[in-house]
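Chapter review: from sequence to fold.
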Amino acid sequence: MTYHPKSDFIATMIERGFLADCTDYQGLDDALISGVQTAYIGYDATAQSLHVGHLMNIMVLRWLQKTGHKPITLMGGGTTKVGDPSFRSDERPLLGPEQIDANIAGMKQVFSKYLSYDDSETGALMLNNAEWLDSLNYLDFLRDIGRHFSVNRMLSFESVKSRLDREQSLSFLEFNYMILQAYDFLELNRRYNCVLQMGGSDQWGNIVNGIDLTRRVLDHEIYGLTTPLLTTSDGRKMGKSQGGAVWLNGDMLSPYEFWQFWRNTTDADVGRFLKIFTELPVDECDRMGALAGSEINEAKVRLANEITTLLHGAEAAATAEATAREVFEKGGVGGDLPTLTLSASELGDGMSIVQLIVKSGLAKSGKEAKRLIAENGAKLDDAPLTDAGLMIDVGALSSPIKLSAGKKRHALVKLG
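The token string follows.
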């Protein structure tokens, strides 16, 4: 990207790897240097906690505030009743109002760790789109808002098109979602002078819809900015571990397990993740990302500590690191752990976790290993292991992994 930004926010987005696309770089950049601007990201309340997949955009809001602007976290109390169809092959289960409110309460706990909600000019706002969506009059909405939308154009958006191309059902309820999201941007611009909507690259169509609608109804100049879809270097979607979603609420995933998730980052991702998920200087992130051997493992510990400190506090991060070192490096569980050393040729394209459990002596047969996993008795690096089909390749063994059967039997697996 050749654009040279004048504003601190866009410069940060570019150099730290947050930027996928923008509707008007020059216009947004000029707006950002002219004074405090308000921007938002929307979050549907489909679970009681946000997960690691949300963390990149939470960091975007944090940088927005740190560079002198005002973030809005828009909770989808209204839109969650409809469900975002973007890039899903099925309809979301519909949630009732009590569940939606409970989910929003759980998600708020995380935002307050990253953003300052106060009365200052750049103080973050927590809003709920149920405030304006719940009281909409259907006929008025159709006449005033619906007339600005072309069904032909809506059918051309990738999120809708992919569903229709596969001949999967797309209900009228879901089809309305993009109109409601566009209306959110219009209302936020009208009520709070919000000029920027941000989101993942899968939200591009929805964001552009909101900009078009706001220009048509209010004739205001507003902008959209998207972040890249984050995948790990081996192509997996960010935010999933062997045990399922990596939740950000401490009561759904312990700080130790959260720390361990980051400690297990693949070597090739360390530099990139330091830039995105921590506030360390870019040069330092690049330096650590280029390390090799045992030094890259210390960089992973630094990555885990920095990210865990932001979310759970410095004490939780220090405790997690101490526990991990106790387990891996010292006596007790660590020093006399049976160790299975595999060569790269033995590992080949990968070995199933079931085979590894048997080879390491934690189970006598594949059947016993599968039963151990099915009964939640197996752990990988102290995180519950639920996927019996998991394949471990050379990348996954860039640092030793710890397998556990029950609470007292452990083994290390490493590359020789």
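Two observations follow directly from the output. The chain has three domains: 8-227, 232-332, 337-416. DSSP finds 19 helices and 15 strands in the chain.
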